[in-house]
Amino acid sequence: MRCFFTAPLVVASLAGYVYGHRHATPSIDGEGHTGLRRKTLGFGPAHPHAVFRSSPYQIQTNGFVPVDSVTDPLEVARLFVEDVMLGKEFAEGSSKSYKIRKDSYTDKATGVTHVYVRQLVNGLEVADGDMNINVKDGMVISYGNSFYNGAAPQPYVNLNADTARDVRGEACDALFTSIRSLRHASVVDSEQLPMGSPSASHIPELIALADANCQPRELPDNLSSDDDFRPALLKFMATATPSTAVATDILENFENHRDAMEVTPVNHLTHDEGEQPFEFTVDNVPDAVNPVKAKLAYIQVPNAAGDGTELQLVWKFEVEMQDNWYETSVSASAPHNIISVVDWASDSYVPIPKVPDFEGASYNVFPWGINDPECGDRSVEKENDDSLASPAGWHAIPTSVDPYSKSVRSASKGIWRNTTTTWGNNVFAQENWEGQNAFINNYRPEAGSEKKFHFKYNPKETEKPDAMDEAQKYINTTISQLFYTTNMVHDLYYRYGFDELAGNFQQYNFGRGGAESDAVIANAQDGSGFNNANFMTPPDGQNGRMRMYLWNTALPYRDGDLEAGIVIHELTHGLSTRLTGGPANSGCLGWGESGGMGEGWGDFLATMIRNAEDQKRSKSKWQDRKTHYAMGSWAANRENGIRNYPYSRDTVINPSSYKTLDKPGYWGVHAIGEVWAEILWVVAQELIDKHGFSETLYPPTPLANGTIPAGDFYREPASSLAAKPLIPIHGNTLAVQLVINGMKLQPCRPSFFEARDAIIQADEVLTGGENYCDLWKGFAKRGLGVDAKVINRTPWGGGIRSDGLKPPRICEDSE
């Protein structure tokens, strides 16, 4: 039965490339419906000089001496940046400087302060010049650094185009190599091929991706200008739009589009170091659904010799489109090359209103842990009562931050609205049959004053032309399920450290810090596609957007909203993007190994949640638990789901290792992600073997005074120690905690190696390193031992890898 044997998403989407992209030409899906597949861009320069250091020996080698433990962590970070890492380069009057970002924060659970630093040169930010410095008790315990370390150019002078290698060209070479290798490979029956694993039959799809990423449209020479941002922006829009008609119109009517743009300067309430007076927004941009944010910046590109980087002056744009939300850097000089693209898929004071005591809601849903309709029956579940994660429950929201209240009347500060629909502080859930961006007035179920979301679900098999209507009959059930699952994930991740300061998704933050007004916009049965799901993650303070689709893989159609693993995977994109590189930086998981891990974390956490709840229902001993699962098998109507292999520690069932990334078909982020998820799965099993297994990942309910009881979930703290950090007892809960803590420690654009090292350091911070060898042995079993290597890694994940099967020598000696 699929429910108990389960095993393989290029922007924050669930399916592999076959389902993951929209192109400019219509396609016909398996049931005869015409539509456009989603187009996405994603590439950028490599950073061969970037480092992540988590060893105290590496940090002390730089000459940094720990300061007094009571020293402000931000001051510790400042001293580290100026006195050790950058020295004379940051002397007064230097063209190089930095700013400590406002999204830096101290993790309440671990006591680690995560400090995020952005490099400035000639007063402009270096878009990919990042440092993350992790400070605890006056010590820098780890740091990542991708600061530009060459000579500063003259202010506002661009590079000669001939002096820098073509960043996109290198990435495209890797893609074309994949296409060529598939052309020479034996053709595989597409019906037997796991989704997300391209074969020769998918070459047209890959060529379409190459066309989108590698052949941007060129502007006529006489319409391009080095001192005007508009040609650069229009070139990007002509390249990014999925519509050939729009692209053609931009080029044929360039002057009209250029002259129609309206610029509004961004005025900061106060002027902080690094804020640029010429930052602005642009209206009337073709194919953008909101004003484009723009500013001048630098970006690092490989130098001609290939042994370092040089700075290139760029226009940095944030562009929200119908199906994409891009952060892109386009060279300021003609011909305005697109250097980097990441597809993401103002803070005001509000008085803290007193939280009313509202009656909880109930939902007739597939309960937490039942992955899909084949795994169990629906039941009536109560609104989760977690006063820590959701103090006002799931349906209450202050009118001052409520988009609906603002749309119908003047919001009154300090007043709460207790909704009787699927609209609350953590998520706005609704149908989106038209596939548009509007959501406030879309349909959502009304449950009445008792808030009983009890709706029927009994779809019938119909003729294909009637299948859509049949699915839409049950939209009340679908939206209620999506609202329930999303809130459960919100509350779970909150308890593991994804709180307001860390950048979680809440419309109101209860005065606990972080940027608010960013609840998840969750669209059920989204009409913009089939057989997929995706999540757009802008920086903290802007709403995340999740789109769940119908799957026409069976009759009746299968609804992705009802497969919990898919919903959890998508929401985990928001978790990993906000935690990696800081809440205000959504550009750290865009492509290559970094982008792949963004996909892998979603599969891993969805599978860990499912495994625990399966065990609870099976009533068997934890040693007999299931240890292999497929991803998306119910929605896709495939036994092995949408990945190449089920997730399993058995190498016969899943042989994936680090070296697997070199195989044809593993160039994309989804294939890379399933390798990362498999590695984490094996590491988790090592911890479970040592510490045992919990039948729930959900921590104990907070007491009335807000403290967390240890119960059978956390260790009882020693009497001489503070109650924090809380250390999970069991292997599976500990694995989830370490993976999430590792996201906070790792640098922007991490590799597999750096993410591995961050998880190992997370254990050092949490437990004093008592699982050091267990973690290393787990990573080594799938090729990420200390002797793992990669040569000539490219931005999109290419290179030649060698599996490392050895743990550190101290662990070998301990066996």
Automatic annotation (TrEMBL):
Active site: E570
Gene Ontology MF: a single term: zinc ion binding
EC numbers: 3.4.24.-
Residues annotated as domain FTP: 102-147
UniProtKB keywords: Hydrolase, Metal-binding, Metalloprotease, Protease, Secreted, Signal, Zinc, Zymogen
Biological process per Gene Ontology, one example term: proteolysis
CDD domains in the record: M36
Residues the entry annotates as binding Zn(2+): D347, H569, H573, E599
Residues in coiled coil: none
Signal sequence residues: 1-20
Similarity remark: Belongs to the peptidase M36 family.
Protein name as annotated: Extracellular metalloproteinase
UniProt organism field: Crepidotus variabilis
